[in-house]
Write a structure and sequence with these properties.
about 180 residues; alpha/beta; Rossmann fold; five-stranded parallel beta sheet; three-stranded antiparallel beta sheet; 8 strands; about 30% helix; binds 1-O-pyrophosphono-5-O-phosphono-alpha-D-ribofuranose; binds uracil; RNA binding; glycosyltransferase; transcription; PRTase-like
Amino acid sequence: MGHLNCREKATILDRDGIRRALTRIAHEIIEKNQGVDRVVLIGIRRRGVPLALRLAEKIEQIEGAEVPVGFLDITLYRDDLTRLGPQPQLSRTEVPFPVTDQTVILVDDVLYTGRTVRAALDAIMDLGRPRAIQLAALIDRGHRELPIRADYVGKNVPTSSREIISVQLEDIDGQERVVILETG
Ligand SMILES: O=P(O)(O)OC[C@H]1O[C@H](OP(=O)(O)OP(=O)(O)O)[C@H](O)[C@@H]1O
Ligand SMILES: O=c1cc[nH]c(=O)[nH]1
């Protein structure tokens, strides 16, 4: 990733680590929901998308049931971009199934302040009335600014605010790892 003036500090997860974390989360999703009847996955672009697809694949392998996967691009909903004014259109959003009465599992790579998730909740509420919304994050790095927590976490990583978590996935980045970068 193109983070300027960043020093790589440590690898948090390698390829196997990411795979194992997703396998565990897939099992936890099935257990918490007593199966996946009326469960749908929605990945937040960009890296929540391949993560949601991988979870769906694992759930199908474990449970033998297909779980619908949708995608949400919430950039225009972020409450720190209000200078742009109201935007009538969500770009590249695809949720081709009803969310009403479904348990929606939001999937993202990093949970930080919680602002992206708050915006995603707004976007989902605009689509219908889910039975419940749960959150899966590959990395929870702390520093929440809103009362939001994840139901499923790949790895909790205590960070300072000068650090950046960089999730790199084969599908987008050509390699598979999670690293911690130090800025400044
Ligand atoms: O909890 P938050 O403070 O909202 O941070 C988490 C979000 O930040 C990242 O996206 P970012 O906007 O950096 O874009 P990217 O996915 O292109 O890196 C990450 O993918 C999460 O969606
Ligand atoms: O460290 C961070 C914070 C937000 N989003 C990321 O991808 N990394």
